Amino acid sequence: MPFLPPLFFTAFFLRLCPLFRFFSLWALCVLLAGLCGLCPLPEQAWAAGTGMRAGGAVDPVYGGGRRLAPPGGDALPDAPLTMPEAVDRALRFNPGLGAQEAQSRSSESGRKAARSAFGPKLGTSYSVARQERESSSPVAAKPPSRGVYSWGVEVSQPVFQGFRLLASYQKAALQADSDKAALRKAELDMTQEVQTQFLNCLRYDEDMRSKRDALARLQDQLRITTAFHKVGLRPRLDVLQAEVDVREAEQALIQAETSRDTSLSALNILLGLPASARVKYVGTLRHVPFSRSLEQCLEAAWRQRPDLYMAAKSVEIAGKSRQVVQSGYYPQVEAYYNVTESGNTPDLKKAGKNGSHSVTWEAGARLTWDVFQWGTTYHADREAGWLVTKMRHEEANLRLTVGHDVKSCLLALREAEKRIRVAEKSVEQASEAYAAALARYQERVGTNFEVLDASSKLTSSQAALTSARADYLTSLSRMYVVMGEFHPNLLRH
Hints:
Helix content is 61%, strand content 10%. By secondary structure, it is an alpha+beta fold.
């Protein structure tokens, strides 16, 4: 910004001093700001300087105001929750998001506070003093002591602060925008966490069904083997092998139930519910196609990711902080108008022969300029400049990291998709193999080991299919977050 000579402001305001009686200081400030080209009106400056980028994802997902979940049973849902319902509840009741929203609202209030610094200040004061006078005449009576009471009102208006007010306001506005983007990022991260735990619950439910089926198969095999053994058609070893496999299947089922309950507890916490709350979550691990290319994903991420928006704002904030420091190079000009009334009584009236009463008013301009500070402002300016450079490097590094995140997530998504196709064929083949082994055993041409091995492979292939489907949907959830998109319901075509 161009340097404006301080003498210009001094001469200009000295000529305008008489007008302060008749015109508002606020109107005068607006006029001078326009003449000097300092800034537009504050609201206009904010609208023009901090507008959102096209396609930028900086608005909060949930705008209804977050609150703490009520204690007790009132907070519990009275019906099973789907994935989008779980996400919505987490966005409304999760305390961590509530804290982030409070930070965003705090920054918005900070912006308004910085805007208010452009306006005039009104102050008042009331003072009480006791006045004693000494006389050098030996014959004169000692002057009596008296009180001095005064009350004053002053209106001041900052005119030029070395661009500090403008830079401070712009910095606060940028910080408010950045915190809105931080809220958006927190909401996206929370959405992914809820979806991941929700999918884990569905995964463990599927595992439990698979392991119950496996346990039922092994129990049937144990009954068949025991019956054959009783009539002498099968050895005792076959019975023992079947019993061992039944016990192992029971242990696997217990482990799956524990994993399911742990995941339910984690999901309840994310939704602002007690860990022990009995809530049912419903859904199926279905395949949802994702056909975007790497280039499309990268373009979406660079346009929509809140952390990239925050990084860009951090560079601008650092630049405005440097401008605040650089304001120390310039003079500070302030216009003022004050009225002071004084007297020798508390009600400011004249009392007694030697009493006094006066009313004075003053209008003018103050100019201060720290000409030399032993390089304090200079070195602070250099420090702020290096901080700007640091922010720029961090932004560039983040853009590189985003590219890696998008590609790795897309690779994981494609890998899980391939695993699903392989696992589906494996389940089909393992089911046929188990049916064949069981038929051979019942016809007494196959062995007990063949049946148990086929059952184990069927269980493993079913678990692999469940894991691949859950991994695919988990990767899909992360894919959307990596691109900065909000998709509360993954389980739909």
